[in-house]
Automatic annotation (TrEMBL):
Pfam families referenced in this protein's UniProt entry, alphabetically: PHA_gran_rgn (PF09650)
Highest taxon above the source species: Bacteria
Taxon lineage: Bacteria, Pseudomonadati, Pseudomonadota, Gammaproteobacteria, Lysobacterales
Entry protein name: Polyhydroxyalkanoic acid synthase
Length: 92
């Protein structure tokens, strides 16, 4: 299975970063019908048929990792580009 692993540095407080990820998760649920759940104060998991992953918040970095199933494999480049764009938008 193809995977995605993207890291972005940030300078937000833990509370601010958590709020940004909450906002991103709401958009993911709305746009892609993914289920999201906080596993801890710093890790949000997401899943739907054909994709699963997590968004982890560290003190100075956000990391998005995902595994794509066969359905989403051809879209890997487009998905990565969109993730990078959103991270740049919220964490630059």
């Amino acid at each position: 299975m193809p995977s995605i692993d993207i890291r972005r540095p940030h300078r937000l407080s833990s509370t601010e970063a958590h709020a940004v990820i909450d906002h991103v998760a709401a958009r993911m649920r709305e746009k892609f019908q993914v289920a999201t759940q906080w596993q801890s104060d710093s890790t949000l998991t997401f899943q739907r048929s054909g994709i699963s992953g997590k968004i982890a918040i560290a003190a100075d970095e956000v990391r998005v990792s995902a595994e794509l199933g066969m359905l989403f494999s051809p879209l890997k480049g487009m998905i990565e580009q969109e993730i990078r764009r959103k991270l740049d938008e919220h964490f630059s």
